[in-house]
Amino acid sequence: MSAMHKFIQALPKAELHLHLEGSMEPETLVEIDPALSLGEAQRMYRYADFAGFLASYVWAVRKLTEPKHYALIARRLLERLHQQNVLYAEITLSAGVILWRQQNLAEIYQALREEAAKSPVQVYWVFDSVRQFGVELAQTVAERAVEYAGDGVVAFGIGGDEEKGPAKWFHEVFAFTKRNGLRAVPHAGETVGPQSVWDALDLGADRIGHGIAAAQDEALMRHLRNANIPLEICISSNVCTGVVPSLRDHPVRRLYDAGVPIVLNSDDPPMFQTTLNGEYEIAARHFGFTENELRGLAANSFRYAFRYRQYPVPSNL
Ligand code: HPA
Ligand code: ZN
Fold first, then answer.
1. Which end of the chain is more exposed for a tag (fewer CB within 10 A), N or C?
2. Atom of ligand 1 nearest to the CA of 210
């Protein structure tokens, strides 16, 4: 283990942008669907572009047909987070896909809560809907999220395709969730330009999923800095889905140097052949983040967590 690897492993961390259904290892997919070969599962985790990724994500989610499948993938995920010294996680559940498939969200969420209660990782949940599936589904997800607001759900989000599901559709949905005490975490500025981030801010975003397009807009970077709204940065995700042409082109350093608050995250780790520690390591090796800067980013992961105040911020940060 290199010294940098050891340093990152030892850092206490929080994970704030992580999709439960995108966290399945190919081996777990095969366990859930024995008709699938490991090679097939691994091939499904390679894509040429963002549309290819979304298609694979939906393909993987469709393998989950029972609450016990959700419990299994949560258990595996929480084990891996604990191994990486992740103390706290806000995990996104694609509740929109569950409801769209007419599955029993109450049973699934109950199974997830039971798994989370057994883990040493402190877990909260973000319910998200899929932009291009429209506003009606989003409103239904929002209502279910509010129903569980006292029971582990801390935020509502939208993911999927920014181009096919513009923010303006979702104003009333976010107004409803915010009125009911949930925080707002839309994905935005991932595949579309800075206007999409401005539009997400109009929704009342408390954090932005990705938001890397902000690097193209000085006024937007200034605004994020002054309003103290962080971007949930997922470097490997952006490279694997082709939304940045190559690792070198990723704006993480530019955003950081402009004073934009950022947090490092893994998004859908096995789908992008990464881990949270791997993301910190990429920041160090490819973008020159020093140990002090990495410590600051780990501190950010607690600072921008919605419930971190209930726990002491780790003293070595
Ligand atoms: N962006 C959009 N949709 C998604 C993502 C993402 O990062 N992960 C899972 N669904
Ligand atoms: Zn995401």
1. N
2. 7
Walk me through the domains of the chain, giving residue ranges and CATH numbers: 3-303 (3.20.20.140)
pLDDT exceeds cutoff 60 at 311: no
User: Ligand 1 atom 3: the closest Cα is on which residue?
Assistant: 160
Could you read off the pLDDT of 11-35 as tens digits, one per residue?
999 999 999 999 999 999 999 999 9
Distance of CA 18 from the midpoint of ligand 2 (Å): 6
Quote the pLDDT of residue 298.
96
User: pTM score, two decimals?
Assistant: 0.97
pLDDT tens digits along 33-43: 999 999 999 99
Structure tokens at 195: 């206007």
What's the CA-to-centroid distance between 34 and ligand 1, angstroms?
26
Q: Check: CB of residue 93 under 8 Å from CB of residue 125.
A: yes
Give dist(CA 224, CA 129) in Å, integer.
Answer: 24
Enter the tokens of residue 24.
């399945």
Give the residues surrounding ligand 1 with Cβ less than 6 Å away: 19, 22, 57, 159-160, 187, 190, 237, 267-268
Coil vs helix vs strand at 69: helix
Active site residues: 190
pLDDT, tens digit, 9 for 90 and up, residues 129-150: 999 999 999 999 999 999 999 9
- φ/ψ (deg, to 5) at 308: -65, -25
Question: What CA–CA distance (Å, rounded) separates 277 from 269?
Answer: 10
